[in-house]
Specification:
The chain is built from 16 helices and 26 strands. The protein is an alpha+beta fold and 495 residues long. It has one domain. The strands form seven sheets. Strands 5, 6, 7, 8, 12, 13, 20, 21, 24 and 25 form a ten-stranded mixed sheet that branches. Strands 14-17-15-16 form a four-stranded antiparallel sheet, with helices on one face. A three-stranded antiparallel sheet has the order 3-18-19, covered by helices on one side. Helix 2 crosses helix 14 and helix 4 runs parallel beside helix 10. The two termini are 23 Å apart.
Length: 495
């Protein structure tokens, strides 16, 4: 029951969210709070510890896959006829790596691995997110919001909590992501500071602050999550700059020792892509080029040929594709050891990968014998709107041409257990009761050239960098907070 105590607490929560930047831009001059759950979702300590202990291995795996350029070519080549964007990405990959030493960039892999905790199978990977893997800052903010509500409005909080007296699961995603990025940024900056102090030809002063360049989409509304990360980096003494690919065109140049330079700014130490996962990010109608988007794609190629930390590299983007995920999920543990994992780690990774199958001419017959809710049909697209469910799958399979098959895959649909009690969500100031709330668990990791990048007092270096929970009704297929009907959420241990 939504009583006055709940209404007052939710209004307080909305104002808390707005004052701390947990918002989405409404127009150029205003913003509204991001949708969120009023209380966190429960998780067992064993499940959480399992994910934290093992998720770094997925980042290690993906790094080695991304640097195996022969494998990337073999994996992606079959889908290019059915996916023009991936054809363009593979051409970019080949241009970057056409010579053994042409790619000077330092690979900075910031990855979010998304899981669902299946009622029978346990946590299984839904997808890798290796480019524009955002909303980590919002993940920390909603955890802080739940902590605030637990302390300030315990009566209302406990009324809607499904885990009485449970301990909230700490989330330092904003600080940890900033730490990992800062480590890579200072690594590059220090390389050139040493050069500047030892070479009379160098013009760069080691006293200049390191520079972080975020490549963004034009007129994006999901910018405050990005700004929170920038503020955390600025607090570490890093200058932050924002540009679109169009704004970078003809403004980048090469300095001494393959230094990347930006007009009006100077040397760049880290390039972080929050754009580049769709053709529209490279579109510029005012530039004449041989084919659509070629000019701005050349800008991305140019970046990777310089000594700069980059997330995501084109190789990382390809390595985190649904196509590569499907191929990895079909391998046994022994086969996974070719990607830098000893057998014990490969066994752990193998247990996290969900079942995926390629689409073929036999898929229609196979699917016709299955229940429509056993599978999800996926293409290679990033973000919401690229999955097909239930009764829509079979007609889509029948429409596909043989040349399109390789660009699609079938994933075994996971069935997580819904919250045991009715949950309360807050969207655009309105309260809604949801009796079947399920959650997707995103786990962030950071690797610098394959090495764990987060310093932990208790565990030393590790890759784990916090989590993002997005919850939705089990009746809703689009669970994105920004693009679907999902809400930000956090975790609480089962009491």
């Amino acid at each position: 029951m939504i009583n006055n105590s709940t209404k007052q607490a939710s209004q307080d929560a909305i104002e808390w969210a707005i004052t701390r930047g947990m918002v989405i831009k409404s127009n150029a001059y205003s913003a509204s709070h991001t949708a969120f759950s009023f209380t966190p979702t429960p998780i067992s300590k064993a499940r959480y510890k399992q994910l934290v202990a093992s998720v770094g291995l997925l980042g290690k795996l993906v790094h080695h896959v991304s640097e195996d350029h022969r494998f990337i070519n073999q994996a992606i080549s079959p889908i290019i006829s059915g996916d023009p964007f991936f054809n363009a990405l593979l051409e970019m990959h080949r241009a970057i790596h056409k010579d053994a030493d042409s790619a000077k960039r330092l690979p900075l892999l910031i990855m979010r691995s998304d899981f669902m905790d299946d009622a029978v199978l346990g946590p299984k990977l839904i997808e890798f997110n290796g480019i524009a893997a955002g909303m980590g800052p919002f993940g920390q903010r909603v955890h802080e919001l739940h902590k605030y509500l637990q302390q300030q409005t315990p009566e209302a909080f406990n009324q809607w909590s499904s885990s009485q007296n449970g301990k909230l699961v700490e989330n330092q995603a904003l600080e940890r992501l900033a730490q990992g990025i800062a480590n890579a940024t200072f690594k590059i900056h220090n390389e050139f500071s040493v050069t500047a102090t030892t070479s009379v030809l160098a013009t760069e002063s080691h006293e200049n602050p390191p520079v972080f360049l975020m490549v963004v989409q034009a007129n994006e509304d999901n910018v405050y999550d990005q700004h929170l990360l920038e503020h955390a980096l600025q607090a570490k003494g890093i200058r932050t700059v924002r540009r679109t690919f169009r704004e970078l065109h003809d403004t980048l140049s090469t300095g001494n020792n393959h230094r990347l330079l930006l007009d009006g700014v100077g040397p760049i130490d880290t390039v972080y892509l929050r754009a580049g996962y769709q053709f529209s990010d490279y579109h510029a109608c005012d530039i004449i080029s041989r084919v659509c988007c070629e000019a701005l794609m050349q800008t991305r190629i140019f970046i990777e040929k310089h000594r700069v930390a980059v997330n995501a590299t084109v190789s990382q983007q390809l390595a985190t594709s649904k196509r590569v995920q499907m191929l990895l999920s079909s391998m046994d543990a022994g086969s996974l050891t070719q990607f830098g994992l000893p057998l014990t780690e490969a066994n752990t990774v193998n247990g996290l990968l969900g079942e995926m199958r390629p689409v073929s001419k036999d898929s229609v017959a196979l699917f016709a014998q299955s229940s429509p809710d056993d599978w999800v049909l996926k293409n290679q697209g990033e973000g919401g709107g690229h999955c097909i469910f239930d009764e829509d799958i079979l007609p889509k399979l029948m429409q596909l041409k043989p040349t399109d098959y390789q660009a699609w895959s079938l994933m075994r649909r996971l069935q997580p257990i819904a919250r045991p009690t009715t949950a309360l969500t807050v969207r655009k100031g309105e309260l809604q009761q949801v009796d079947d709330l399920i959650s997707e668990i995103g786990m962030f990791t950071v690797h610098i050239d394959g090495e764990a990048a987060i310093e932990s007092k208790d565990l030393g270096k590790q890759a784990y960098a916090g989590y993002l929970i997005r919850s939705k009704s089990a009746r809703t297929t689009e669970g994105g907070v920004h693009s679907g009907m999902g809400v930000l959420d956090s975790l609480v241990f089962d009491a």
